[in-house]
Amino acid sequence: MAVIAGISNTIPTPAGGTHEAGVRAALTKGLRAFGELVGNKKAAQITADDIFNESELMLSVFIRNPQFQSQTKDRLTSPEAARFVENAVRDHFDHFLADNMERGKALISFILEKVDDRLRRKAEREVKRKTATSARKLRLPGKLTDCSGDSSQGTELFIVEGDSAGGSAKQARNRKTQAILPIRGKILNVASATKEKIRANSEIGDLLLALGCGSGKECNPEALRYDRVIIMTDADVDGAHIATLLMTFFFQEMPDIVKEGHLYLARPPLYRLTHGSKSVYANDDAHRAELEATVFKGKNVDVGRFKGLGEMNPSQLRETTMDPASRSLIRITLPREYEERASVNDLVDRLMGKNPEHRFNFIQDNAAQLDENAIDA
Q1: Is 322 helix (H, G, I), strand (E, B) or coil?
Q2: What is the rounded CA–CA span in Å between residue 141 and residue 29?
Q3: Residues 6+ away with beta carbon under 8 Å from 49
């Protein structure tokens, strides 16, 4: 909340006026110019509200023949006041920033955080305008196949990769409680992306619209449209990568959803082992080896590998991955205490952040933990 105490010729002007417009213009233009000087292109997006919404300012001017809006003199209207104040303040402010580069850069960084908050709130308001509480008025992504239940209790949103997997999932689902949202390929890595790229990403926009609970500081878990959000990707390296990108998105943009226990990972099988009329599914290579050594010990087993969820017929997908009676889910959680989340923050930054050297060091430090069989596989 801005606190600006404006005075003209010793007369308080609580409604502001042209003298306040002058100081707002001076500081806004000064910060934009300084941002351009230090190579920060985002500074061009700074507005006066970004600077003054959380500021306190005392402004006193003396001009000849001041003009006021009414007899109460609560607003200065002299047009020349804006130009006089802007010129006087801008010159001193420019010199201050040029002589104190580090403080100037710190100020720019602080103001740009306000810019990001403003743009995010604007984007979320646009999402909310597209979203109504009434089911009949609800506008959702066209690719979303929603469930028919009126309440969020017991409902599930499956986030799947690609239209092929989405088609199988739509046929395998329980229409009353399970919704399907296909995403295209690998979504944006939000840990190394700018706020602008995150807001402009269509896949993330569709996901936010489907969830309906906002993001960032405005995220409200109580407004989540589904009881469970389930990431369901292929049981291979690419699928694991997509799941990691999605978990990073929820960790950074919707941590409260994770802390409240709404986020899950599905466990689709990678193999189908068959001998005679008996078929068993294996989650990975280690599970396959275990089944071959126990359930099918000494028998010739026909092993089928699923290249993706789209290769599974709907009945197989329902039985192994979507039916609550026979599936297994992994719940993704976060420590509730901030201090306990420090290690998680550090891990996400190292593995998903902007610095590739951190990932390289992590791989070097942990590569020795892999045995030769895992490497060969």
Answers
A1: helix
A2: 40
A3: 118
User: DSSP labels for 79-106?
Assistant: HHHHHHHHHHHHHHHHHHHHH-HHHHHH
CA angle 179, 127, 348 (to 5 degrees): 75
User: CA 363: distance to chain centroid?
Assistant: 26
Q: Catalytic residue numbers?
A: 161, 234, 236, 238
CA dist list (Å): 17 to 20, 68, 182: 6, 9, 53
Q: Is 377 helix (H, G, I), strand (E, B) or coil?
A: coil
Are the CB atoms for 93 and 30 separated by under 8 Å? yes
Paired with 76 in beta bridges are 17, 68
- The whole-number pLDDT of residue 358 equals 59
Query: What is the reported pTM?
Result: 0.59
Same domain, 89 and 191: no
Instruction: Give the tens place of pLDDT for each residue, 342-377.
Output: 566 666 666 666 666 655 565 556 556 555 444 333
Q: 284 falls in which pLDDT band (50, 70, 90)?
A: confident
In a domain, 164, yes or no: yes
pLDDT at position 15, please?
82
> How many other C-beta atoms are found inside a 10 Å radius of the C-beta of residue 14?
13
66-117 pLDDT per residue, tens: 898 877 788 888 889 999 999 999 999 999 999 999 999 989 988 988 888 8
**166 and 237 both lie in a single domain:** yes
Strands 156-161 and 228-232, by their bridges, are parallel
H helix count then E strand count, the chain: 14, 11
256 and 279 together in one domain: no
Give dist(CA 71, CA 282) in Å, integer.
84
Q: What is d(CA 369, CA 363) in angstroms, rounded to the nearest whole number? A: 10
Query: Domain range spanning residue 193?
Result: 135-268+315-334
